[in-house]
Amino acid sequence: VTENRSDLEDLHLYATPREQRFRRFASLEFEGQLYMTPHDFIQAVTSDEPKHAKKWRSLSKQELNQILMETPPVWKGSSKLFRNLNEKGVISYTEYLFLLCILTKPHAGFRIAFNMFDTDGNEMVDKKEFLVLQEIFRKKNEKREKRGDEEKRAMLRLQLYGYHIPTNSVLKTEGEDLVPRSYWDTLRRSTSQALFSDLAERADDMTSSLSDTTLLVHFFGKKGKAELNFEDFYRFMDNLQTEVLEIEFLSYSNGMNTISEEDFAHILLRYTNVENTSSYLENMRGSIPEEKGITFEEFRSFFQFLNNLEDFTIAMQMYNFASRSIGQDEFKRAVYVATGVKLSPHLVNTVFKIFDVDRDDQLSYKEFIGIMKDRLNRGFRGYKPIQRYTTFKSCVRKELYSR
């Protein structure tokens, strides 16, 4: 059974931006619930739109079981896991939100995330504890639901969650005014409020209501009895961040060891609300006449820094309060002090040339932070695709390596 485009657009009216994106990129359906493949997920976080208009393919129980049987255990994970699985995997909507959270978190936050799931404090996470995630995100979503046709909203909930639990929840709630804004904040605050004993009592009901997914089998084994330790959890999160960055880097490098400074600027300006990207690109072209290129290690270190943007913002505010200008040395030092990440002089110079529109070799604190926050959200603060410009040298290089 497939869903046609008009039905998809109809339910889109009742969906939030994240729900809309999930539904656009998801390609599988099982018992009324939508799923992404690992390939769908990679596309959703690295592409503007699906390459082809999606029709949801209905999986049989036998097909789903075969997919799950081929899921590797967590100790076989790598930074190519999603690419290797490709179409042979199923990812639910709540897992999609969880994976999005991972992509924007610093390594120091991995321990916090693990401890949030480890509700009984035994340094291991089991399947029951991980399923708290389903309840937390479902409950938050209910508070954000758009009003309208109850039947349509019920259909949407079925597509996203596969079931709908009555209002009694695993979580202690303290009023609408205390609901945090981000899914990460929701996870961080709500997991600490979760009553594990209540969850344990309902775990069998939840498990029977939900189909296993690739992530659940990867973490907890085919029988769901395995437990996840911090080292494996950390490795999974680090591998996922690395894999997405590798895919973005390789989409511009075409087999080379570097991407051009201009391509780096394009990647930074994707998923932002910048209205006139051409001014940034023109400014950079005039300031960096000779291409040196950005290596993957430089590229990765910058995005590790972005995942620590909140701490860096505090350091930058100290300069701002002291009425001190932010030059390249101050910027590099603030990054290292706040995040522990060392950026190369060439990378820092490139960042300055992109954002230093008035060419005084000083960084506009407010403008830079605002744009980078948009970039971290990967389009959920009002995505606007940008036109891509390339230098002659980049075009020649890509033409040669595309043959």
UniProtKB/TrEMBL annotation:
<keyword id="KW-0809">Transit peptide</keyword>
<dbReference type="InterPro" id="IPR011992">
    <property type="entry name" value="EF-hand-dom_pair"/>
</dbReference>
<dbReference type="GO" id="GO:0036444">
    <property type="term" value="P:calcium import into the mitochondrion"/>
</dbReference>
<dbReference type="InterPro" id="IPR018247">
    <property type="entry name" value="EF_Hand_1_Ca_BS"/>
</dbReference>
<dbReference type="GO" id="GO:0005758">
    <property type="term" value="C:mitochondrial intermembrane space"/>
</dbReference>
<keyword id="KW-0479">Metal-binding</keyword>
<dbReference type="Pfam" id="PF13499">
    <property type="entry name" value="EF-hand_7"/>
</dbReference>
<feature type="domain" description="EF-hand">
    <location>
        <begin position="343"/>
        <end position="378"/>
    </location>
</feature>
<dbReference type="GO" id="GO:0005509">
    <property type="term" value="F:calcium ion binding"/>
</dbReference>
<feature type="domain" description="EF-hand">
    <location>
        <begin position="105"/>
        <end position="140"/>
    </location>
</feature>
<keyword id="KW-1015">Disulfide bond</keyword>
<dbReference type="InterPro" id="IPR039800">
    <property type="entry name" value="MICU1/2/3"/>
</dbReference>
<dbReference type="GO" id="GO:1990246">
    <property type="term" value="C:uniplex complex"/>
</dbReference>
<keyword id="KW-0472">Membrane</keyword>
<keyword id="KW-0677">Repeat</keyword>
<dbReference type="InterPro" id="IPR002048">
    <property type="entry name" value="EF_hand_dom"/>
</dbReference>
<keyword id="KW-0496">Mitochondrion</keyword>
<protein>
    <submittedName>
        <fullName>MICU3 protein</fullName>
    </submittedName>
</protein>
<keyword id="KW-0106">Calcium</keyword>
<keyword id="KW-0999">Mitochondrion inner membrane</keyword>
<dbReference type="GO" id="GO:0051560">
    <property type="term" value="P:mitochondrial calcium ion homeostasis"/>
</dbReference>
